[in-house]
Amino acid sequence: MRNDSSAEGAPMGGEGASMQPQGGAGRGDAHGARHASQPKQDAKFTVRDFLLWCALPIAVVVLMRVFLFGMYVIPSKSMEDTIVPGDRVVTTKLAPRVTKLKRGDIVVFKDPANWLADEQTTFSSDYLIKRLIGLPGDIVECDGNGAPVVINGVAIDETSYIKPGTQPSAFPFKVTVTPGHVFVMGDNRSNSADSRYHQNDGDNGLVPISDIVGVAFARYWPLNRIGWLSAHHDVFADVPSRETSE
């Protein structure tokens, strides 16, 4: 019996011994799994990460600013009430170089012939902003004294954008827009030294299209005046085209 019991005890002892390492291995595996699931603490911000998350977005914004959009501060009262002094507007540079200009567009352009000397500005600037009324080939005229502006024989209703209480033009004029130029007017007709006032500047008061740097489409400052700017293209819907080659 001693031999039997010792014979029986050997397998039991051996079986227990065989189980012990398995239990130890299980705890080790669980411990290793916990460590493996923890994120690495020594991750570094690489040059590639910098280019992807910092440099690339900055480059995109700069390229958009240079080639697609312009930002300007309004220096005078000539476009009230649509735009007032101190407003900041954003323009698209696609017009007139990629897309065509349209009557009603609010255009920003370089001072063509020292027009700013006749504008009451709050600060110095090299640019003006007006509404495009006549395209190349158009005949723009008005009899003054409250009469409407007439383009190519069609009278237009400008009450949707000119400043309330002002006339389309207080005095008469008639201009044929030459190729490569446009005729512009401010929405505040009683306080806008626009194309009407510069008939003797060498271009008959017209703005060279090459001087236009963009078309304004939104106000972005001040915060309480953020919003889209309307071109009111519908006002000119019935005007027949007389465009000439530029």
From TrEMBL:
Residue span(s) of domain Peptidase S26: 49-221
Family membership noted in the UniProt record: Belongs to the peptidase S26 family.
Membrane-protein topology: Single-pass type II membrane protein
Main location: membrane
UniProt enzyme class: hydrolase
Family annotation (PANTHER family): CHLOROPLAST PROCESSING PEPTIDASE, SIGNAL PEPTIDASE I
Gene Ontology BP terms: signal peptide processing
Catalytic residues (UniProt): S78, K130
Single GO MF annotation: signal peptidase activity
Record key words, sorted: Hydrolase, Membrane, Protease, Transmembrane, Transmembrane helix
Record EC number: 3.4.21.89
InterPro entries (UniProt xref): LexA/Signal_pep-like_sf, Pept_S26A_signal_pept_1, Pept_S26A_signal_pept_1_CS, Peptidase_S26
Chain spans, region Disordered: 1-38
Name this protein carries in UniProt: Signal peptidase I
Domain of life: Bacteria
Record NCBIfam families: sigpep_I_bact (TIGR02227)
Catalysed conversion reaction: Cleavage of hydrophobic, N-terminal signal or leader sequences from secreted and periplasmic proteins
GO CC, alphabetical: plasma membrane
TM segment ranges: 50-74
Compartments (UniProt record): Cell membrane; Membrane
